[in-house]
Design goal:
By secondary structure, the chain is of the alpha+beta class. It is built from seven helices and 21 strands. The protein has two domains: about 5-120, 3-layer Sandwich (Rieske Iron-sulfur Protein); about 130-325, Naphthalene 1,2-dioxygenase Alpha Subunit, Chain A, domain 1 (Alpha-Beta Complex), CATH 3.90.380.10. Helices cover about 15% and strands about 30% of the residues. It comes from Mumia zhuanghuii.
């Protein structure tokens, strides 16, 4: 998992004013809430510096959040402004927690989980089609998935699996070849475009879709899949009925749990009556993918490129793995198991550092919670484990659970 990126964590419409909400990301728990003064969103570590209570269980007062345990009041920048037990004493320098930059864009709340200055942050991709409500009709949804987000991302951009995993939905078992494809790539993304032979349309799509003839008579359908580092996907399909675009974020709650949030756009069947069907089609695909991806081993994406075998159609996945290695080399990876959140009991709290830690050097000694460790350190531990210098980390199998649609 990686720090220093913008992560979409919630739909804007699902954070009402006045109520704090807990969100989980990269193994860390965060509280988000809207300021009373201007309705903008604040995102902070959900860990009170006093006794570790979850601020998300507290309340919003003016622009501040109040801890539910002893009532300490935190400013939006993470500094404590009031300690009710000692109103006449000064506030200790260390009475502060990390507060992260936030943007509301493309119907999502995005949190910057890292400490880079603004100019050095990787951008949020251009997803402005989501705002184009003239052209597109949108449905959205959430899907909690008990698999690693990188395995899910690779699955989402993988063209070769569709005839086998989604045969009859949008994959075509009669035509599993992946034809020549075009590639567009940058430092942060990779888009692959192909023309595929579609299967016969079913359900309400079959009413107007003219592709009922033999396979060879059906028009080819332009399809493209795009990933953006570290966890975003766009699937575009130009069906004979019109265009479809499915934007999705694969939110790494921790290494083994992913919350998928999608916005699916379409230029056809734009009435409200077709929304249910449009959502149902996305969930059907997610359930089909889940059945395969949950059983993939190892659970996490290998670091060694030669650990799995690649063929031409895996081009975009190989590029993803290379870019990911570059991020690890830059020191951007975070070892989620050292962050306090879900999972086993721990005695130490670590958090992802926020920008103010670098911006205000005078505060360098004012941070009570240490920064999360990076993967390089974890790698060294694995080496030591293999040499037998330290006991092996517990890898007991846990039972995986079925994913579930999260009620809208
Ligand atoms: S734990 Fe938050 S005020 Fe005491
Ligand atoms: Fe799939």
């Amino acid at each position: 998992m990686f720090k220093n990126f913008w992560y979409a964590v919630e739909f804007s419409e699902d954070l009402p004013a006045g109520t704090p909400k807990k969100v989980k990301l990269l193994g860390q728990q965060l509280v988000i809430y809207r300021k009373s003064s201007d309705n903008s969103v604040v995102a902070m570590s959900d860990l009170c510096v006093h006794r570790g209570a979850a601020l998300s269980g507290g309340s919003v007062k003016d622009d501040c959040i109040v801890c539910p345990y002893h009532g300490w009041e935190y400013e939006p920048d993470g500094a404590v402004r009031k300690i009710p037990a000692h109103p006449d004493k000064g506030i200790p320098r260390k009475a502060r927690i990390d507060s992260y930059p936030v943007q509301e864009k493309y119907r999502f709340i995005w949190i910057y989980m890292g400490d880079l200055p603004e100019a050095e942050r990787p951008p949020i991709p251009d997803w402005s089609a989501i705002d184009d409500t003239e052209t597109y009709r949108a449905v959205s949804g959430s899907f909690l998935w008990k698999s690693n987000y990188e395995r899910i991302l690779e699955n989402g951009v993988d063209v070769a699996h569709t005839p086998f995993v989604h045969g009859g939905v949008f994959g075509n078992p009669e035509k599993p070849e992946v034809p020549e494809f075009e590639v567009e790539e940058s430092e942060w993304h990779c888009k692959v475009s192909v023309k595929l032979n579609p299967p016969r349309s079913k359900g309400i799509w079959g009413w107007i879709n003219p592709n009922k003839q033999d396979l060879k008579d059906r028009p080819q359908v332009p399809v493209s899949t795009t990933w953006w580092l570290p966890n975003m996907i766009l699937l575009e399909v130009d069906t004979p009925m019109g265009a479809m675009k499915i934007f999705d974020v694969n939110i790494p709650i921790d290494e083994e749990t992913t919350l998928v949030k999608f916005i699916a756009l379409r230029t056809f069947f734009k009435g409200k009556w077709a929304d249910r069907d449009a959502r149902r089609r996305v969930f059907k695909v997610l359930y089909e993918d889940e059945a395969v991806v949950n059983a993939v081993r190892p659970e996490l994406l290998p670091f060694d490129l030669s650990a799995e075998l690649h063929v031409k159609s895996d081009y975009n996945a190989v590029l993803y793995r290379r870019r990911r290695q570059e991020l690890i080399d830059k020191g951007w990876s975070v070892e989620g198991n050292t962050i306090v959140g879900e999972g086993p009991a721990r005695v130490e709290a670590r958090v992802i550092p926020s920008p103010i830690r670098k911006e205000v050097p005078e505060l360098a000694s004012a941070w009570n919670f240490k920064e999360v460790r990076s993967k390089e350190l974890l790698g060294k531990r694995v080496e030591r484990e293999e040499r037998g210098d330290v006991p092996r980390t517990d890898t007991t199998d846990t039972e995986t659970t079925r994913g579930e649609e999260v009620p809208a």
